[in-house]
Amino acid sequence: MTIPHLALVVARARNGVIGRDGDLPWRLRSDLQRFKAITLGKPCIMGRSTWESLPLKPLPGRLNLVLTRDLSYEEAGKAKGAVVCSNLADAIDIARETAEDDGIDEICVIGGTALFEAALPRARRLYVTEVEAEPEGDAWFPAFDESLFRETLNERHDAGEKDDHAFTFRVLDRI
Ligand SMILES: NC(=O)c1ccc[n+]([C@@H]2O[C@H](COP(=O)([O-])OP(=O)(O)OC[C@H]3O[C@@H](n4cnc5c(N)ncnc54)[C@H](OP(=O)(O)O)[C@@H]3O)[C@@H](O)[C@H]2O)c1
């Protein structure tokens, strides 16, 4: 089997916003369903704030890897059900080992900003939901060179009953 590759999973607004006040700036049931379908069974690496933002912790059916520089975070019982790492390289190593053991070919980085920024150069695939909105926010997806990727999926959807906005599901694969 080949080494499990790194994928980023993000929903971003037209202005790059991904978060506000430790939460998502929208309600998009369709995107939550897509997130689950993409990530289920795969190791998921996330920053400490993203972990804290999860309504259901840990994400079930997935190895949750949480990055923090706070050495007392785990001891304080704040990461129950997750594996805590102090740097991205360690998290990727653990995620890869687990994925290989489970016969999974992809590991997911699920945010936020710093994690996306650090993982982008190593990402083979980006699952991007383009949200048709321009909300205020305090967390952004970093700008990146899209010409390094080929779009392999582009699927526009009108807002469903439990979606605040229309959106487009995209998959970008590194060329
Ligand atoms: N729309 C989306 O797809 C999406 C996805 C994810 C999150 N979000 C939203 O984005 C917001 C959270 O993201 P965020 O960017 O504010 O924070 P974040 O990246 O989730 O967490 C930041 C924290 O992670 C730790 N960290 C980051 N890089 C690290 C590294 N290289 N080594 C060790 N620790 C590291 C640090 O924790 P310590 O301070 O503990 O050291 C840092 O303060 C929320 O609003 C959330 O809802 C949106």
UniProtKB/TrEMBL annotation:
This is Dihydrofolate reductase. One of its GO terms (biological process) is one-carbon metabolic process. Pfam families: DHFR_1 (PF00186). It comes from the Bacteria. It catalyses: (6S)-5,6,7,8-tetrahydrofolate + NADP(+) = 7,8-dihydrofolate + NADPH + H(+). The keyword Oxidoreductase applies. The keyword Protease does not apply. CDD domains: DHFR. GO terms for molecular function: dihydrofolate reductase activity; NADP binding. Keywords: NADP, One-carbon metabolism, Oxidoreductase. GO terms for cellular component: cytosol. Residues 5-174 form the DHFR domain. Belongs to the dihydrofolate reductase family. Its EC number is 1.5.1.3. It is an enzyme of class 1 (oxidoreductase). Pathway: Cofactor biosynthesis; tetrahydrofolate biosynthesis; 5,6,7,8-tetrahydrofolate from 7,8-dihydrofolate: step 1/1. Key enzyme in folate metabolism. Catalyzes an essential reaction for de novo glycine and purine synthesis, and for DNA precursor synthesis.
